[in-house]
Each structure stands twice: as C-alpha cells, then as structure tokens.
C-alpha cells in the first residue's frame, strides 16, 4: 500500500481547531484502506515563536521538505503584535512558500447550491459555480527590483515597484493552468494588461506558445485583467480556469471569493515545480482565512475551508480524485441539510460549532462511501 507523508502545521488561533477536524477526515481515509497517510504535526507561527523564538524551526522546515504535502492552519494574532519583524508569525508561512518553491497558488471559487443566497451575487449567477484561479505567487511587482521610496532634490518623494517576469516563470505557471484545465472544463482564460504593460505582452506570447502542446482539447482565451474583473461579477460561470500574475491574481481571487459567501468556505493550494526524477510537486494546502482571534478557542470556527484544503491535497498531490469528489459531496450534503457555522448562518438553519460540523461531514462520508 502507498504511504503518503502529511505534515500538519495547525499554527495559531482557529488553525488549531480546524486542523483537528482535518485529522478526523484523514483518519477516515486511513480506515478506508486504499492508501496510508502517515501524519506528523509541528509548530508554526506564534506557537513556534513562543516555544523556539522563531516562526518555524529548521527541523520543521526539514519535515516540510520531506512531506508529500503540508496542511497548514493559520498563523498570527494580537498576542504577537510586538515581536521582531523577522520572526513574526507570518514569517513562518513566507519561509515555507520560499523554501518549498511554491510558485503556483490555486484558489477555487466554488458555490455550493445551499449557500447561493449567502453570495453577494444573485443566486442564478453563482449557483453551482466552480472556477479555479491560478495565481503566480513568487514573481511580479511584489518582488521586482528596484523597489524603493527615494526623496528627490525637490523634497518630493518617489516610490517605485517593478513588475518583472521571465519566460520560464510564465511558462511554468501556464503549464499548471493547462494541466488543471485538462482535469476540469478544458478552458483557460489568461488575464493580463498587454495594452499598457510590457510584462503583459510577454505573458500573452508565452502563454500562447505554451498552449500549443495542450491544443486543441484545452481552449485558451486571452482577456484583459480589468475586463476579467468585470466579467467575474457579471457572469462568473463563463470561466473554468483563470491564470494570471501575482498582483492581478491577488485581486481577482479575492473578488471571485465573494461569490462563495464566506472566508470560512475557501480552500487553497500552493504548488512547486515537479521533481525532475519523481514528477512530484512540493505542495502546501491551507484555508484562505487567518487565525480569527475574535472567535479562536471557542469552537465556533467553520472547518470547511481547511477540510476542503485537504480535499485539494487528495486531488492534486495524491491523485485521489474520487475521494476528493466524495469529500465535496459530503460537504455539500451537510450544507443542504441545513447545518451552518456562525459565519454562514442563515435564517431557519441549524447553527453548529466546529466539531459538530466536522462530525456531520464524517457521518456523510461514511454514508456516501
Ligand atoms: P481572519 O481571516 O482571521 O478573520 C476575518 C474575519 O472572518 C473574522 O471576523 C473571523 O472571525 C472570520 N473568520 C475567518 N475564518 C473563519 C472561519 N473559518 N470560520 C468562521 N469565521 C471565520 O483575518 P484577520 O482578522 O484579518 O486576521 C487575523 C489574524 O490572522 C491576523 O494576525 C492576521 O495576520 C492573520 N492572518 C493569517 C493568515 C494565514 O495564516 N494565512 C491569512 C490572513 C490573516
Ligand atoms: Mg489577498
């Protein structure tokens, strides 16, 4: 039987509570007996700082390097507001992203039918929505040099950020998007601003060239990023996969997220390059939300974002698409049955806590399996 190594990094606040629910789901799949998940747990963020004085230890990083997937909760909170910049809780996540070379950020926007009325868009626009935004995560204007604020002779200040992309950076993210599209709806929109940015021109060229080995089964359309933003609220179901740069991806993925109702519902994945020998990618899965200090420790957090992040691990790291579908179905039926954590509560529904939501999903899994 294949054994997969999972590193669980609960972190701080509700990360601890939502990862506990993931552990129960992992247990379920272990008992199902198709593969074995060997799990290890370590500290990250404020929890690691309190014990070791750093946001993640070298030993934990080593485990992350060796793991087949990392499942991350959340980090941070007011308790660590005053800690030095280099060891602040977020530094743990940034080091993981950097050292694992996680350049592709996958942000699905899925609207479960039961939650379509919680969306900020009309039900008919979002019911059954399932799109995937693929954001380039390690290049672009957030990292390009020069990056500075200088004082001019006039006394005025001048701030500069630089958008930089190379052919190889664009090609590898485009491949991730086309590979994903092949497992989904076979359609990729590539969003840039070639009309005003040189990086947009190169982006367009490289994505077009990369597409050649995926045509004709995967369709490619180029779309200007501002138009993409409009189309996402006008008619989001026209999209399957959207691939875009770091900055546009940051904005477009948050925009698309609103279609789904709540932060507590949003999973994500970050992938690295495939290993030359094994073809395996380094991968980290995490909810989009943070540590939610306002509700932490009270058993109120919605565990679905973190559970669905494990679902993405099943799909993208372990090639267990059937099991991932099963988990999605279990989540959908629990929502259809009216169970709601506080963040997605609607009139007439049945309010539950973190563990009750986890138990209900487990029970559905057992029924559907
Ligand atoms: P947040 O996502 O933690 O919370 C925003 C609001 O959404 C809060 O009212 C919270 O109660 C609610 N919320 C979030 N997730 C929820 C869930 N699963 N169930 C129910 N309600 C949920 O963002 P915020 O408040 O801006 O940041 C809090 C802390 O988390 C900060 O220290 C921040 O730096 C950190 N953070 C960490 C992230 C990470 O670890 N990747 C991402 C974002 C923030
Ligand atoms: Mg953002």
TrEMBL record:
Task: Describe the reaction catalysed, as an equation.
Answer: (2R,3S)-3-isopropylmalate + NAD(+) = 4-methyl-2-oxopentanoate + CO2 + NADH
Subcellular location as annotated: Cytoplasm
Q: Specify where it is mainly localized.
A: cytoplasm
Q: Which pathway does this chain act in?
A: Amino-acid biosynthesis; L-leucine biosynthesis; L-leucine from 3-methyl-2-oxobutanoate: step 3/4
Question: Which domain of life does the protein's organism represent?
Answer: Bacteria
Signal sequence residues: none
What cofactor is this protein dependent on? Answer: Mg(2+); Mn(2+)
Q: Name one Pfam family in it.
A: Iso_dh
- HAMAP family linked to this entry: LeuB_type1 (MF_01033)
Name of the protein in its database record: 3-isopropylmalate dehydrogenase
Q: Which organism is it from?
A: Hyphomicrobium album
């Amino acid at each position: 039987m294949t054994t997969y190594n999972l590193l669980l990094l609960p972190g701080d606040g509700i990360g601890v509570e939502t990862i506990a629910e993931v552990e129960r789901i992992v247990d379920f799949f272990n008992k199902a007996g198709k593969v074995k998940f060997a799990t290890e747990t370590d500290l990250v963020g404020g929890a690691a700082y309190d014990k070791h004085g750093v946001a993640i230890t070298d030993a934990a990083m080593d485990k992350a390097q060796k793991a087949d997937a990392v499942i991350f909760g959340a980090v941070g909170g007011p308790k660590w507001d005053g800690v030095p910049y280099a060891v602040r809780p977020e530094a743990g996540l940034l080091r993981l992203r950097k050292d694992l070379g996680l350049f592709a950020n996958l942000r699905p926007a899925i609207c479960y039918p039961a939650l379509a009325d919680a969306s900020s868009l009309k039900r008919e626009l979002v019911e059954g929505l399932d799109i995937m935004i693929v954001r380039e995560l390690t290049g672009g204007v957030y990292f390009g040099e020069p990056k500075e604020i200088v004082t001019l002779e006039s006394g005025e200040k001048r701030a500069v950020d630089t958008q930089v992309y190379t052919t190889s950076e664009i090609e590898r993210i485009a491949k991730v998007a086309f590979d994903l599209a092949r497992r989904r709806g076979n359609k990729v929109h590539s969003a840039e601003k070639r009309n005003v940015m040189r990086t947009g021109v190169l982006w367009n060229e490289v994505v077009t060239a990369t597409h050649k080995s995926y045509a004709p089964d995967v369709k490619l359309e180029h779309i200007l990023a501002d138009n993409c933003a409009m189309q996402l609220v006008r008619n989001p179901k026209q999209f399957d996969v959207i691939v875009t740069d770091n900055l546009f991806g940051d904005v477009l993925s948050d925009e698309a997220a609103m279609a789904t109702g709540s932060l507590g519902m949003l999973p994500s994945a970050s992938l690295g390059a495939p290993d030359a020998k094994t073809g395996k990618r380094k991968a980290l899965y995490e909810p989009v939300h943070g540590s939610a200090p306002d509700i932490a420790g009270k058993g109120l957090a919605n565990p679905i974002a973190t559970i669905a992040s494990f679902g993405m691990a099943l799909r993208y790291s372990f090639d267990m698409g059937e099991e991932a579908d099963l988990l999605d179905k279990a989540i959908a039926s629990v929502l259809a049955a009216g169970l709601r954590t506080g963040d997605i509560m609607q009139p007439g529904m049945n309010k539950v806590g973190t563990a009750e939501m986890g138990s209900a999903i487990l029970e559905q899994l057992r029924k559907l399996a």
